[in-house]
User: Which sequence fits this backbone?
């Protein structure tokens, strides 16, 4: 990834929130949100997450897990994107 331009406005080491299902169980990222305070969230799409499922990782880590995240890197704050499976396109909301 050294020769590829990082797609986010934020730096690669920017902290973001994800869930243990993605980090520890290899679940796909099916929901992404760029919160009004600038935080990014990347979740597995499960209906409910408990606080103990939260993990703090870098944007670069998320991009390394799923390069299709680059397709929504330009998403403005207060917007989200969802998809049904890893093979589906992102639908911005």
Assistant:
């Amino acid at each position: 990834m050294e020769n590829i331009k990082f797609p986010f406005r934020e730096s690669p080491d920017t902290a973001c929130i994800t869930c243990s299902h993605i980090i520890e169980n290899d679940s796909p990222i099916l929901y992404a949100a760029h919160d009004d305070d600038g935080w990014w969230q990347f979740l597995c799409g499960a209906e409910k997450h408990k606080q103990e499922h939260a993990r703090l990782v870098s944007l670069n880590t998320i991009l390394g897990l799923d390069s299709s995240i680059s397709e929504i890197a330009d998403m403005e704050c207060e917007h989200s994107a969802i998809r049904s499976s890893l093979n589906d396109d992102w639908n911005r909301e």
In short: The longest strand covers residues 15-19.
